[in-house]
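Minutes, methods subgroup
Present: GH (chair), OT, SY

1. OT presented the first of two proteins processed in the latest run. Sequence and structure tokens recorded below as shown on screen.
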Amino acid sequence: MARRLLSLFAALATAVGLAVFLPASTASAAECAAPWSSSAVYWGGNTASYNGRNWQAKWWTQNERPGTVDVWADQGACGGSTPTDPAPSGFVVSEAQFNQMFPNRNPFYTYSGLKAALGAYPAFANTGSDTVKKQEAAAFLANVHHETGGLVHIVEQNTANYPHYCDRNQPYGCPAGQAAYYGRGPIQLSWNFNYKAAGDALGIDLLNNPYRVEREAAVAWKTGLWYWNTQNGPGTMTAHNAMVTGAGFGQTIRSINGALECDGKNPAQVQSRVTKYQQFTQVLGVPTGANLYC
């Protein structure tokens, strides 16, 4: 009825020389195809989604990102987002991109858990230019991928190490037990003093209940963000500062595990982290920046 009345009004207005603009019809965006993967092989006619749009391969292609080479035909926006806003939720990594980065992840590591944790450190992936924001997100997730085998492992796999992470010289001791402070979460939080410090910073009693890190996704993600944003580790700066000041991805490696990996000590481990960072920046459509190695 409303549309009919508008049409009648338009006809009448036209008759007396008035310009009329009727509301445009709203079309829903197409459903997104499976996310593009740099490791997948696509034949002519295959489709994939990337950065909020569907793309169709013109011929055989692998590791050629849609929109950057002339082997992909743009099929238009999908899923209600656009190339300039791939993550309407506010985080620079969309859920589709997150799933593309971690195709075999443990269901424990939810995207919603990560989103819920972001409020604890609002400067994370939210400082500087859009490129810097995406570079920091890629750097964090690349290190996380390395630490957890692609978000597969929730806890440290070498159980023989478990009793070693209790420093009884601390005044608070190890109230949860001698072997309770093993590595957990996306950056494998370990040692009683780290559980104490992280819990104090986050307002969560992790000293007495470290098991929350392996049982609650948001808590696990928060501990990873706590380390990333506040701890220098073996390095000279936090991983967050390394990315937002331009010091480079190599300094994030130094902050996380530099004592064991940097300065030529374990180049294969360093290369593993760098390779994943290169892949993730490609997913997000940004350059890697300089200083990739430590």
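2. SY then presented the second protein from the same run.
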Amino acid sequence: MNSSQLLTAARAINSTIYTWRSDAMDMESTLQLQINPRTVLACVLSFLAATISSAGGVGGGSLYVPILNIVAGLSLKTSTAFSTFMVTGGTLSNVLYTLLVRGPGPDGQPLIDYDIAVVSQPCLLLGVSVGVVSNVMFPEWLITALFAAFLSFATFKTYGTGMRRWRGETAAARRVLEGASAGEGTEEALIGQKGEGGGHGCHWVDLVVLVTVWLCFFVMHLFIGGEGAKGVFDMKPCGVAYWLITVAQIPIAVAFTACIVSQKRKLQTNSQVAEMTISVKSRLDALPVYVFPVAALLTGVMSGLFGIGGGLLLNPVLLQIGVPPKTASATTMFMVLFCASMSMVQFIILGVPGIVGALVYAVACFVASIVGLVVIEGAIRKSGRVSLIVLMVAAVLALSAVVIACSGAVRVWAQYTSGQYMGFKLPC
């Protein structure tokens, strides 16, 4: 086959891809949720993805986006917006299940570490705002490239965490067989249920602070408004007042974080309760004070930009500083709930179409999250290998990275050859 034939074949393939994408976009613009084989398959795959993600303690956005984009035929940006609804539904189910059904750990302490959550949330929501604005401004080729790079990094981190857990479980099983863990139940030694509590005392104050911070950012975005949703003062997009309120999120997040950290340190200094000292000191004093806010800020940016909950970044961070796996998973999902819900609200303000379709997917993920927790916890109790779920998530992420990179390259080439605009856009 000579060069002219290759060029003709390439043009024919490009034309077919462009026609398919145009048809998908036409379908997307008319109705976001049509009952057809592609939509049914997307719902089934999303259900399975939510089941796996919930068991692994991650939001699942990195799995939802390729499913919606490739299987359902939605554009990457619409898939990103839809995934925030799905992550919110799945994490809400996970948090409710943790609080109402699983209850506290064996030592009587709650699985969610509220100290970490309350210190990190202001910068987390600030990052979401930056990410959502970036999603509107960035061209699709850049979002695709960044998303593929993030998935590759998340795969590496998740695989490393899974292998460390696998080796730890193997060592625990060997000690049990050798009689080194006399007096401990085999199942308890393998799963590592002791010391899973992460909090202390009554957490109503922390919950009030978390909701207050969330509402503060929410009100600011009600003032700003967006495409398809005017602000309460009918503010001019990209005007002086618009940017003043947008930029004001930075000092507000910094102020909230500084006050919260200061208050936590005062409580640690004044209190003589041993368990409180351990909880706060091991998470805040063992690391520089900026570690949690910076990690939360980066997580929020990725959440808003890619439509993910950020659990793949938060979970490894918590595990690295010695937080027990179950506490790390529960705390991560709790923080992802605030992060994803803020992304969801901001996409609604920005006028994302097809809200009904997004809610249907979210309900499916809500149910799947409970199913995943129940089934996986049973499997872990029988096998004693919680690392199996982590390694499974790593494998799915690796596949998603390949699929996103390949499909994104084809889509960008189609845009380039058709002469579409591929540059940056204004945020409003």
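Chair's summary of item 2: Residues 16-32, 181-195, 197-201, 272-284 have pLDDT under 50 and may be disordered.
Next meeting: continue with the remaining queue.
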